[in-house]
Amino acid sequence: MPTPSDPDRAVYAISVAAELTGVDPQMLRIYETRGLLTPVRTDGGTRRYSGRDIDRIHRIARYLEAGLNLAGIERVLALEAETDDLREHVRRLGGRPRRRS
Q: What's the whole-number mean pLDDT along residues 76-98?
């Protein structure tokens, strides 16, 4: 199933997200409860996942395979978001962030 052209467009039901990622729907619900995912909800309360959500689920699965627990993954994702925000801030200021070697 192709990913929609807009990665933020929430089109996948939980069963499709589970099939695309190999992650059980119950685990997707747990990820949501833990704040690792925030799928869009329809007016009827049905979860809808975007291409960006699917990518995030894959990242969570890789971190789990690497031995992190959900608390560790939560922290890693928060640090990634903070890093992205800082890079964007530096970009807006006209600079280039230095990369560690």
A: 88
> How far is Cα 98 from Cα 72, in angstroms, rounded to an integer?
26
Whole-number Å distance between alpha carbons of 68 and 94: 36
**What is the rounded distance in angstroms from the CA atom of residue 89 to the CA atom of residue 82?**
10
Domains and CATH numbers, the chain: 14-93 (1.10.1660.10)
How many residues belong to the chain?
101
3-state helix, strand, coil in the chain (%, to 5): 55, 5, 40
In what helix (H) or strand (E) does residue 33 lie, and over which residues does it extend? helix 25-33
Q: Tell me the C-alpha distance between 59 and 62, whole Å.
A: 5
**47-73 pLDDT, tens per residue?**
999 999 999 999 999 999 999 999 999
Q: Provide the mean pLDDT of the chain.
A: 91
Q: What global pTM score does this model have?
A: 0.80
